[in-house]
Amino acid sequence: MKNKLILALSGNDIFSGGGLHADLATYTVNGLHGFVAVTCLTAMTDKGFEVIPVEEEVFAQQLASLKDISFSAIKIGLLPNLQIAEQALAFVKQHGDIPVVLDPVLVCKENHDLEVSALREEIIKFFPYVSIITPNLAEAQLLTQKEIKTLEDMQAAAKELHDLGAEHVVIKGGNRLSKERAVDVYYDGREFEIMESPVLASNNTGAGCTFASSIASQLLLGKSPLASVQLSKDFVYRAIQRSDQYGVVQYEKSSS
């Protein structure tokens, strides 16, 4: 029988909008008990929004501390470097019997250098061991190394990511294809599901993290992959609708 223990491998957003803050809030709303292994810290400096990886030994100690806990689902967020990603993959391989959602946060590393290339290859290694991946358009472009400008491009990218080993794929289009409609594409290897909702003017900081952690929550609660995605898209839409009611500070940064 499943318990209500769910883990996030994610970063600390200094503005408390995304990362582990969004994950834990989402778990709590769904009546689940959330745990976190922190992959990185962040800071706003003169250089902009910076990601500071935790030390390899510290991350290893966190994972070792959690080795005897019987989680019922895992959500993976920002993996800041190859070393942290390798440790996370080894941990995930030990939990092949539970839902795992991978949100491949790569947009904070859009400079196409050797580090990005190595991290991309490592992220792809996760695909056979996770239930759903949830890249946004920029991340899907980095993973497929192809430009995405149309709905047809999104579908082709989703199929390519599935062919690379991802069982279920959701590409989050946001408002990049249309300023009026937020369009996402779901693909399970057989059929595509196009999901749309109106674009909202409210603060949407952390929406991608919330979406992925909501999917993990719904999978834990017994929903099918497609139903988990559909429920989570609605959940995020309602969260964005209400976000500015709570005095959330709006800001700009270069990560999702």
UniProtKB/TrEMBL annotation:
Its EC number is 2.7.1.35. Residues 13-247 form the Pyridoxamine kinase/Phosphomethylpyrimidine kinase domain. Keywords: ATP-binding, Kinase, Magnesium, Metal-binding, Nucleotide-binding, Transferase. It is an enzyme of class 2 (transferase). GO terms for cellular component: cytosol. It catalyses: pyridoxal + ATP = pyridoxal 5'-phosphate + ADP + H(+). InterPro entries: HMP/HMP-P_kinase_dom (IPR004399), PM/HMP-P_kinase-1 (IPR013749), Ribokinase-like (IPR029056). PANTHER family: PHOSPHOMETHYLPYRIMIDINE KINASE, PYRIDOXINE KINASE. One of its GO terms (biological process) is thiamine biosynthetic process. This is pyridoxal kinase. Belongs to the ThiD family. CDD domains: HMPP_kinase. One of its GO terms (molecular function) is hydroxymethylpyrimidine kinase activity.
